[in-house]
């Protein structure tokens, strides 16, 4: 199918009224309704409530036949003839200089036809004529554009011949057809522009046929002087010739010489050739009409009314109607679907992520969204604006994901930083200081942070945690030697008491005294305790201490109290009951004899 089908009159005869496929509607009264009316300044259009309500009540698919042309060219009379209506019941027919029809009107009783086994309600639209008094060219363009978009069949009613201005009027219709022509040629018809039917009414049928007239009118006009207007019209001619597989038109003779009395005449009084050609025209319109397809589907009354609202809003934008604004309307739903697909792809991500991975996911999601847009978008020349708008919307969404990623990254890294900080504080407060345990905790904290902290905040938090760990390590090392020294002094004194009074183990007591004297005299001799920490003996003491306090098998800091309690119980038990089992003898008693002649026992 092409955008504008150039239609031939050599078609099989189809009945109009009385055809089994046609059923007269009963939902509406037999009268006309305004669908679109001019505003106060007669420059823009507004929807009429009556006509919209009449359309909304239609439940079946809708097709529209619109008649356009200059004012006082007999459009309303032609519609009445197609509907077999007298002038006093059908569309208003006037004989004065001013135009009778204002805006766009619809006949309230649609003609029901059956197309491919599906019921279709055909609406007939009467439009305000061009070039009437008191109107701007922009207003005429809006009427022409709206009729082009609304209709399934666009009848271009011209008296006598085809003028240069008549071809120029088709510029907007050509732009619309070019925009959607590529989509229509595919199997999936997303939008089907109206089929254009040239209808030329003239007083005689001799001479050139209407087909020849159309062919000649569409031939390029020489433009040696480079006139811009001629170039523009020639471009329209070229587009019309390319889009039409056949440049066939239809002609009607004048029904009667007394045109002001046509409404009062019966068919028997009209010219016989006119009546015959009129019936052929009915058959032609019936054979080519198809339901209006928008976004790949047919429209019922409610959907058709909503479609009109969107189209009219687009046509009223700016000073002049543009195909670009119409393309935006058609692409709006597609943009929403593409943006939804992009959001769905991005929502699958589990934030936070590294910035390069987020950017890669963004690129992949954009590719999927653009692919969907390329498959379904409307328009060939003005689709760039819709594509640019899609890019803008996706970029806005991506910025939100970037902010969310930064927030989640900061939140995660802050949690890990706080966890490491608490761990370092805990290691600083060990009951039994252990460098091995501190280093193990330090390494574990650093590794878990490097592994789990991801996203844009990682770099800044790496610097923070590096400073924090460095300070914690320096503070621990500084306190470690002092605390260990104090622990060893305390330990030596405790061992003196235990070796002297608890287990009375002479060697243990002597060893404890040696340790205590070494620790105390060394610092007195060398004035500072720091010098002790470089002594090899101190290094041996530290290595022994570390081996006892912390190992992968035993963490004495955790088990110090339980083990100390068990050891204390054991010592007390051994002190109280162990001596009796050994006959009251100590391992190495200090004094195991008494002086001769002395009866006074020596106390320990």
UniProtKB/TrEMBL annotation:
GO terms for molecular function: GTP binding; GTPase activity. The chain crosses the membrane at residues 484-503, 510-527, 559-577. It comes from the Eukaryota. Keywords: GTP-binding, Hydrolase, Membrane, Nucleotide-binding, Transmembrane, Transmembrane helix. Residues 59-172 form the GB1/RHD3-type G domain. Belongs to the TRAFAC class dynamin-like GTPase superfamily. GB1/RHD3 GTPase family. This is GB1/RHD3-type G domain-containing protein. It comes from Dendrobium nobile. The lineage of its organism: Eukaryota, Viridiplantae, Streptophyta, Embryophyta, Tracheophyta.
